[in-house]
## 1
Amino acid sequence: MTSGIVQCELCFRYCKIPPGEKGNCRVRFNLDGELKTLVYGKPCAVHIDPIEKKPMFHFLPGSRAFSIATAGCNGHCLFCQNWEISQKGPEDTDNMDLPPEAVVAEAAKNGCESIAYTYTDPSIFYEYALDTSRIAKARGLRNVLVTAGFLNEKPLRELCKDVHAANVDLKGNAEFYRKVVSGDLRQVQDYIKIAIEEGVFVELTNLIVPTMNDGEDDIKWLVGWVLGAVGPDVPLHFSRFHPMYKLANLYPTPSETMFMAAEMAEKMGIHYVYVGNLYAGKYENTRCPSCKETVITRMGYMKPDVRLREGRCPKCNTKIPGIWR
Amino acid sequence: MDCEAKNRRLQNAAFALIIGAVLGVTLWSIHSREPIIVNLRARPIEKIIERKPADQTRAEMPKSTDAAAVKDEPSVDDKQVSKTKGKIETMIERGALSKHPAMYYKKVEK
């Protein structure tokens, strides 16, 4: 005999949800003893963005991504840039009616080469992302996840079947995840490894927050984990923090700190290091790790100058990892 | 040159200087991606994470005088839960929210 309570098994939280209540993510609802998603086909954000904005630098450079998100999130970062939709339930946001087939049709109509599941987190609009990505792949469009990485193994492997690329946040160490993100580092680390194992092209992003994860030890630890777990060829983006949400009183990350992190990551052996949310000079460009030739030049979100030849350095023929066509 | 023409030329020069200065600052801001208007209330947050002793290479951080710079959310009470439940169920009935079956869950036995 059941109690009417359901237990969600999507992410590390394993929320036990009584009838009439929602899970931590605010979008999964117990309706008369059955768990429902409130946001299937109901995005609250739909935009067309340059793919570099995700940031994805090794995936269809210069292309446009049809980007969607629903309300809610299973993380609660104090610095969330999208808190006005991520930290609300869908009953409090303006939502559109856009079923999966319509997402794909709009993306194709607008000349977008990919669909990005982004802004909040595709983990919490899982069913919507899963169905949309299946239709998109069948129609020749690519799928990109932009995610904090809170998703259990089974649903993740299922989702990866139709996903081509992902940008995963690697925000800090375990303490940072507990106190600043209300998240779980171990799950994120597993997510990164599983996605790569399933053939998804992964790029990582670390948002550097002053006084919280901006020390040399923090960067050293993070880069050390990346090198040991997934190797030097996974592109790593350091992103500058700007005051937002519950950290509106904190100052933006100094540019010196951003370049310290990038230089340290390069010195430790990461091949593709980028700096975002400020003018970053050489750290906006892709350089061949062998001969140091600049193979892709970028300036903000303007169309990049791509000099690769069949995905290889034009000077020394080194293969540059990525999805270039 | 008569006075009026001289004054006009001076005025035009002054306008050109002002416009040039504004344009220059704007272009510099775009180039450097530094905000023109600095958040004068910005200050570091302490005590969310216990910091190790500062690196020698890092500048001395001014100490925060506030007990907490991070806002706490109020706890959710039963009335609020029931209000939200009512709102959600109404919106589902209207079609404003979905009731699509969720994957990856189980029913809890009594």
Note: Chain B touches chain A through 47 residues (CB under 8 Å).
## 2
Amino acid sequence: MSSSRRDFLVGSTALAALSMTPQWALAADFEGKTITFWVPYREGGGTDTWARFLASWMPKYMDGEPTIVVRNVTGGGAIGGGNEFSRRAKSDGTDILGTAGGLQLPFLLGDSRVEYDYGKWFPAYASPFGGVVYARTEAAPENPADLLNSELGFGSIGATGSDLIPLIAFSLMQLNTKVTFGLKGRGPARLAILRGEVDLDYQTTSSYLKNVQPLVDEGKMTPLFAWGVVNADGEVERDPTFPDLPSFPEYYAMIHGEAPSGPGWEAWKAVYSAGFAYQKFVVMPDDVPEDIRNAYRSAMDAMAQDSAFQQAAAEKLGAYQQISGDVVDAALERATSMSDEAKGWIVSWLKDTYDVEI
Amino acid sequence: MPDVILTAMANVASFAFLSHLMIGVCLGLIVAILPGFGGTVGLALTLPFIYGMDASSGVAVLVGLMSVVATADTFPAVLLGIPGSVSGQATVVDGYPLAKKGEAARALGAAFAASLMGGLFGAAVLTAALQIAEPMILSFGSGELLVLGILGVTMVGVLSGKNIFRALMAAALGLLIGSVGIAPATGAYRFDFDIVYLGSGIPLTVVVLALFAVPEMIELLTRRSAIAEQRALQGGLLRGVRDAISNRWLVLRSALLGTTIGMLPGIGGSVIDWLAYGHAVQSAKDKSEFGKGDIRGVIAPESANNAKEGGALIPTMIFGIPGSASTAVFMGGLILLGLEPGLTMVMMSADVIYVVIWGLALANIVGAGLCFALARPIASLTRVPFDYIAPVLLALLVLAGFQTTRTWNDLHALLFFGLLGWALLRYGFSRPAFVIGFVLAEGIESNLYQTIDFYGWEVFQRPVFLILVAMCLISAYIGYRQARGVTDSGAKRPAIDGVIFTLLCAAVGLAAVISMLDKSPQTRLFPIVAGVALNLFAAAVLARNWFSTQKGEVESYRAPMIAMATIGSLIISIAAFGYVIGAAIFSLCFYFIRGVQNRLVAVGLALGLSALAAILQSQLNIQLPEGMIDVTTLFG
């Protein structure tokens, strides 16, 4: 073979090889791509609404303005959707997942149904939430310490989901609560307290502001405390949306004279971080190419800095600092890890209090 | 208040609103006509589009779609015997026999007229009730909801016709299978065999679809003719309308039923049309035609399920608590538009509520009008030889079933419950009874424990509770009288294969009871009661069979087996090649094996189906089942 022909062959082979390299290896451009935003919850619910809200804002900040479509995958509750994502999601950056407490908590507690692994997911963004605990005014105490003297009814979905947060909290405070399980969600629980069937309830911030605040203004309901927000040091501070309401540890101190401590308190903080303070994450498989992962993170960071987005988000998602940029790693770490001691405490607490095994 | 209403009126009358309403209505019509796509699937489709629309237009699209689905899902129910959505089940019972008699147009006419009247009634009640709705919803506590659920179960007696014990057995089986999942009182998993899909209970949508659609398809595949057994499609639209008008008090009562029960969140919208149907039977002097094509069996549920949409909007708008699955999606849509239903909306932006109400009323009118206009052309589809449309229908069914949770488990459930539905049909067990048990299981159980916890014996001091208990007793008594007054001559008795099926069910019940014995009391009570009841009724069925004089013949299994294999092969094809290619391959093979005459049309249909599926996925974001070979990646 002549050298010029060989050169030609080598050159054209190289050219062919280059042209077959995925376009993305050259630059994280989402032009013409359709991204599937998996949501392991039903249409119309809280997480679904959050995801669709984000999906409508994200493309503006991503190179090439891709189309983002939401795919609701349920089947076995959120766990089923999470499992399906871990099985089927592509690693080219076109599949991302919205997670919430319903995915994080079972993972945290080692639920045998869980096939997915947060350790294999890369977080791009997180939206914290908060909540408020309130009581029917007729049942509300004059002083916090009076709570110990009365039996209070509380409606719960189940002992192993997000309701762990109030259930452990009430237990730590040593309240005399009569818990009835089997309610279909916090919405029906709200209905139950309106009917006078239960005395205590809690709602997420957005639901509280929308549905309970008017009743508080009318005097029918009395807020007791807001859970609070977890700061960078891992301590619980007052919720900025409710500056006049004590946080849970403050309220605890008002009853017992000292701040909560011990393995039960550590367990509560761990569960709270997973269920509330870092409630919703946007994640993708961690074997997505690095430049694409970074493209997501910086795009959502830019989105979070945009004041137009902040304003819309404040209305839709509450006045919480969205978590974007590299700090999301720490947030996910905190949300999905629990010391063995704390986990052990929860497992035996569940067995002793509600005869539930995980 | 009046100026709020006037603002709302002006809004509704604007061109932008009306044109978007039309879009919603048309989209809803298309979706509802396809069997299994009605209800939440259609609504969910619009969510990506309405984001970014101005609030008023977005609301128009949502309301347009939601209200027309309840009218248009009559098409597949009457013409194919397949409920278009979960709330179209009862219409099948008498609507489909009417179609088989060649009176499809009459059934459709009556249904549309009843839907229109019911829907308008629902909108009117919604307007009036806004003021008093709040105390009404609050006065229905756990105790009242419990008895309402039991009332639903007493309707089984009404629906059972001559085979009361078989119907009760089917209901008990439904209750048992309905308890699969998480026990409400304790959170323990029951009967889930460690399968995640079963962990949260078997989803209703795919169960109803499978139970009614698959046996129908098997039946049609074996008969190999057109759906309408008689050639003439008697022009009966107007006759149907006259039927609805002459039964207007039934329409009104059904609408009242639909609205009131629709207002109570959590009772399950799918029970409402059975309650209406049951009421129609119980209040009729001549009950003999029910189940064979009594027009009242179409009018009552159709009126109720349109009125229900208006009713379900009340807790949605007032409390921000959705009254049904479709209003849950509707609420999600409102939130995306920046509207927040709930107390805040009632106090600050009540005009939105009135816009929704009137949009609902208007959409009902427009939707009914469109349905009337399209009734003839769509109804004439039933005269097409079934071989041509069979693969298309089957493929659509599979797609619809898959939309339940968008995992392959949906298709497994489709096959399982399809088989069960076929067996129930063949051996004379009432499928409506099964569905009633299945739907009400969770509600009855959780409300039972909640009533005990919240009220205890004091519940007997609540007036509404006592009224409902009385209604239960009356309803049960009527069912009992009806069953007793029947002579045995016309009843179809199960032959040996029916006996085997009965024994199988009894065995399942027994196994369930035994497996629950070591669980905590609150976990095991409900399934044990269901399992024991199942065995008691099975014994009654067998006893009756033993003592009967006429023995039934074992009908041939060959044809149904072939039909089942056909359906199975579609699933396998999809599992291998993915939906787009798999459905096309199946269709082509089907046409070839059946020896269809017009090759061109056949190929066109097969390719058209694939093209439609591809469009649905790319444009409307409908998820298609993926196969092992993901062919779509070839196309980028």
Note: The radius of gyration of chain A is 24 Å.
## 3
Amino acid sequence: MNTDIAQRVKRILAEQLNVAPEALRDDATFDDYQADSLTRIELMLRLEEEFQLEIPRDDATRLEDVKGAIAFIEARAVAARP
Amino acid sequence: MTRRVAITGVGLVTPLGLDAEATWHGLLEGRSGVGAISQFDAAGCQTRIAAEVKGFEPSRYLSAADVRATDRFQQLALAAAQMALRDAGLPARFEGELAERSGCYLGTGIGGLTTLQRAFESVAKKGPRHGSSAYFLPAIIANLGSGRVSMAHQLKGPSLTHSTACASGAHAVGEAMRVIQHHGAEVMLAGGSEACINQLCVAGFNALQALSLRNDAPERASRPFDAGRDGFVLGEGAGLLVLEELEHARRRGARVYAELTGYALTSDAHHPTAPSLDGPVRCMALALRDARRSPADIGYVNAHGTSTRFNDLNETQAIKQVFGAHAPRLAISSIKSALGHSLGASGGVELALSALALARGVLPPTLNLEQPDPQCDLDYLPGRPREQAVGALLKNSFAFGGVNASLVMERV
């Protein structure tokens, strides 16, 4: 796991899920934090901005938890490097 | 056969207090909600004073996620709605048939302008893809005020958002009254909410020369009917009434503040911002006719009374024309002298306070009326509240676009 990417993803998730960064559990799902559909879309937008990526909508809707989001971004952040 | 409409609850968030009682007592004590603008840096504006709601914490009324997704005007509305329903002794969440027979008409003149400004700046800086947010549109659009209130309380009946500038709140209440009269609902939350104390709004009203420039004496700037008035003071806030079919209210033993008995709306068809005499005259006369009341039945007029040269003179002349020989016997006052002009919220806020005035037999004063305009020579209750049991009152709201609203409210 790339620590830098993981930390940045978790910071954004914590902010959007309205929890303190240190309280965000690595094994948490978005449902655990009562994230509704607007919050889930917003998560994706902020991750796109942070990592300068474009996340296709079909891919985005498959994300459900912290681990999945970190893995998803790591794969694409690597792929986006020239 | 039309049904009767009772007012069984009020909810208020205003520059004088975060609930109805704080606002009411502030009004009677002659306090002003006007001060230096604190919500943005107004140093570059011609007007640097406003009537701001102080110390409002949205997290008291909304979840953290909802605070993020809403504009302040929606947050104030949600707070006022919660308090109004509690005041009426109705459940916080409606169920079953009552849910389907209850709705929300919430007026706002300008909607989420502060969020719009933030959205624009963000997109300009970061481009449309990364500068946008899923929360922008729901926070900006006017109808998410009533939408959010409906969601919070499960009101599944009629929901509309009246946007008629300074008459929005009054129109919302009048139209909600009609829904209940005509069997469309049993309970309607109705009123207005506005929160646009931002640079764009202040600059825009300054360009129209509509705002007071009395920056050195904020609490004395809003002075309706006074010879030294020089424009209105921008305010913000939310005022919601619980309107309920009268028998429905009686069956559940609800406390009834007053009954809404008349409503009318007219258009000046004259000028985008300056009033005509004809529009308000016809509006008041039609509201009285709708209530089956004659001018002499009215004891108090809660005026639109913005503290502009135009409105206060025009409204005085209109009142004289409608009430004739009875005009000098009327008690009249403008709550905007204390709360400023909260645009789309003002009709709702002032109708809610009028209901309290009627029920409690105390009429609020017009502040800062030190030297009456010679052409404004009626009894405007200068400086002090008056203990007076009045049987029926008339409420006016007049707006940009030449639109007018008048309502009649009576003791039951």
Note: Chain B touches chain A through 13 residues (CB under 8 Å).
